[in-house]
Amino acid sequence: MTEETVELKLPSRIESINEAAQATADAARRLGFSEDALFGIELAVREAVTNAVVHGNRSDESKPVEIGLAGTDASLAVTVRDQGEGFDPGHVADPTAEENILKASGRGILFMRTFMDEVSWERPAEGGTLVRMTKRK
Amino acid sequence: MSELNIRERQAGDVTILDLEGKITIGEGSVGLRNAIRRLMQEGKKKILLNLSGVGYVDSSGIGELVSSYTTIGREGGQLKLLNLTQKIRDLLTITKLLTVFDTYDDEADALNSFN
Known about the structure:
Chain A has three helices and five strands, in the order βααββαββ.
């Protein structure tokens, strides 16, 4: 049985998004996900880490973003955790609504939900936001 | 090598930008924004983005395409898209932007549509 565990602790800067995306794509490829699935998994992680870096930690490089990847033959589970003030996905506007369609931002969560099978947000007692995402084969 | 390489061509009064690389948060999105800003300053308001060489776009990149479209439209110009890859087409479909943009698979058709 193939198993894969990767843990990254990266500073809150734009380059970390590429690093996390690359590590995720490499892990998903080793686990045997299809190229189509790889695209979506990588994109979802890019968006989650972007949110953590830019919105959660407000690009404060002293605050790390922690990324966890846990893969098996059947699925890849991803966690992304920031040190921000917390985030309520219920308060995010629908980017496909007519009044939002031409806005420059607000589509990241839509991509996460589209390309992963499960996406959820938690606010751990010790602070920040923890995103959990799962992609099944 | 930068994330996004941009080559500029002129076909009559239409400026074609051949994009190659990634339009993602940071360098790629900023590169596209700067290129569009420069064309606007030069008075070039008919712009065709050739996306055939773009392998990856994230929500920031999609946002940059939307910003470019609205900025140019406000100035009385037009921005159109050429040669969408299947992935970019999928992302524009998911975001309901595919019908917002004028998209073409043939450069001559795209150029004719500006007149």
